[in-house]
Amino acid sequence: MSGVGIKVQQAISLAVAGLAAGSMPAAIERDPVRDAALKKLASVAGERGWSVAVLRDVAGPEADLFFPGGPVEMVEAWSDLCDREMMTAMAETEEPRLSQRVKQALLIRLPVDPAMRSGARKGFGVLAAPCGRGALRRSLMRTVNAIWQAAQDDSSGMTYMTKRFTLGAVYGATLLYWLSRGQNEADLAAFVERRLAGVLRLGHLKTRLSGGHKAARHAEPYAASA
Description:
- By secondary structure, this protein is mainly α.
- The protein contains 10 helices and no strands.
């Protein structure tokens, strides 16, 4: 695993810990003009990188005024934009099973798109630098929360936190796979399926060991409506 990959993995661990504690980062600024500039930058970021100079070149000489925090803010805002687009795409899903809705959301959020994967690799390189670690952790936490919202989960209390903690680990593993080997749609879908199936098996095992229905409600975060 590359140095960037190791740093991303470490950030995933911190994000999962934050999800377990039930602490979610605040929402970031959202603006249609800013979104348009981000889309232009993201379309070339895989080749040219995330920088103020490239942003000005593709989105206008004053586009950098939208991102006073520089490349770190750009990448964090782009992650949030991808979360929102995933939620919009999931809005009309008719899939009745929660586990399959989660799978759909994961695959929409991490599409088999060479340009997006290339841009994401460059973006994670920016966020893996010391000045970007906080933004990386926040982005991961927002994405996991957005996936649950897109899957139309309405849990609360301890179950809310348990589900996000569990999905944090699944998303982290899927993200690393997607960045390194996510060019084949069928292979990526199979990887996600295996990860979710593993969560369900673990939940069933915990239920048998505990022998109680109350434990099942907390141990099986994907089982409801599966």
